[in-house]
Amino acid sequence: MPVKNLAQEDVVTVERDTEVSEIARTMDDERVGSVVVVEDDEPVGIVTDRTIGLSVGQEDDPASQTAEDLMSEDPETVEADTEAYDLAVRFGEAKVRRLPVVDDGGKLAGIVSLDDLIATSAEQLEEAAKVIEAQSPGYSPDER
Description:
By secondary structure, this protein is of the alpha/beta class.
């Protein structure tokens, strides 16, 4: 399955000069844990709720900071046609929980999270378990 089938297409984005207070409100309103910072529809950074939280203890006036002040620059991205089974490795190598998805031209096409991958994997494992149970009379995972 390609990543584009797993990714969320509606990505919450901001510009470099968006103030952190606005980013926090947007995250709350949209119920997301990150925003992608874009320039010409290309991801140039990402700001997470964790980044904002950590900035509170490090800055005198964190609310006056901008996305550019806090963003992780040049975020690791994944191409829309990448196979989903490659995602676990990509998340592990990049040590991130979210990856912006880009098209062939590098334009933002979606976002995929580790949560998306885990949920999809769990659904697939559940279906596999049904096959095992159907083909193994008397087998039940509760009776091991």
